[in-house]
Amino acid sequence: MFDVIVIGGSFAGLTAALQLGRASRSVLVVDAGSPRNRTSAGAHGVAGWDGVAPGEILARFRDDLGRYPTLQSRNGEVIRVEGSRDSFVVCLADGAAIAARRIILAHGVHDILPDVPGLGDGWGTRVLHCPYCHGYEVRGEPLAVLAVHPLSAHQALMLRADWSTSITFFTGGMDGFDFDALERAGVRVDARGLKAAQPDDHGISVVLSDGSSQQYAAMFVGPRTSLAGSPAEQLGCATAEGPMGNFVRVGPMAQTTIPGVFAAGDLARPAPNINFALADGAQAGIASHASLLSSDLVPQLEIAS
């Protein structure tokens, strides 16, 4: 039996494992090999790694963890987690069943992009989610924002304020936005829908519902997210509704509502950021270690009904 199984081997999960390895605790990191930012050319706004490809950073991470003899890693897809504190069982798609005293959920969320042909081909390169993560690289260029939810208008206003004077906000017929505020800020509103997107090395061309096309340096989309199939659902961890989708509710020590289960990174926050994931992972690793020393050190997260 492992002291801790970490489900997810990206920024949050590997940081959690590092803290536990330095306490000489037995840890298994199970990772499916599909980090959320795998298509991004660089991780931006991360001190010491600004512009370095996420895959390269994670490779360095794994090298760091290799120095700790109590840490193990395994490629695999977790299909089920059963049990309770001190006696969890993690079941993998290959048939393996592995026991652990504690669980750290760090597997992220699924992004759900609008159903526009070609849009997914540019995800992480010309179809972007975050001005802080990617805006600087396309600053001053014509940019588009695709309406997905109410915060999409906020994204357009942010980009217009500090990244580009040429912002087009495609509503696709969605209502509920403060169009006066968008107009005052200098955001061009276009109600036409998108039929297709064609990203390339120079930008992204969008084909509109009337057959015309427009060219932009990038299109920003804040996608919906999903926890469907997450072990958090199976275990009964309480969730909350964020602007993009549900996320796992955690306390100040990364604890969930299920004793012995901790959560870190994108699945435990309403919005993603590598810096947050690193901090969350460190907290989850330290807190799970504290709970191994004494369960009283980490109280169960209680959610008022």
Describe the fold and architecture.
This protein has 305 residues and is an alpha/beta fold. The chain has 2 domains: 2-111 and 224-297, 3-Layer(bba) Sandwich (FAD/NAD(P)-binding domain); 114-220, FAD/NAD(P)-binding domain (3-Layer(bba) Sandwich). It is built from 7 helices and 19 strands. The protein has helices at residues 11-21, 54-65, 131-134, 151-162, 179-185, 231-235, 274-293; strands at residues 2-7, 27-31, 71-75, 78-84, 87-92, 97-105, 110-112, 127-128, 143-146, 167-170, 188-190, 194-200, 203-208, 213-216, 218-220, 224-226, 239-241, 246-248, 261-263. Strands 1, 2, 3, 4, 5, 6 and 19 form a 7-stranded mixed β-sheet that branches. Strands 8-15-9-10-11 form a 5-stranded parallel β-sheet, covered by helices on one side. A 3-stranded antiparallel β-sheet has the order 12-13-14, with no helix packed on it. A hairpin with a 2-residue loop joins strand 4 and strand 5 (87-92). Helix 1 runs parallel beside helix 2 (54-65) and helix 1 runs parallel beside helix 7 (274-293). The longest helix has 20 residues, at 274-293. It is elongated and about 60 Å long.
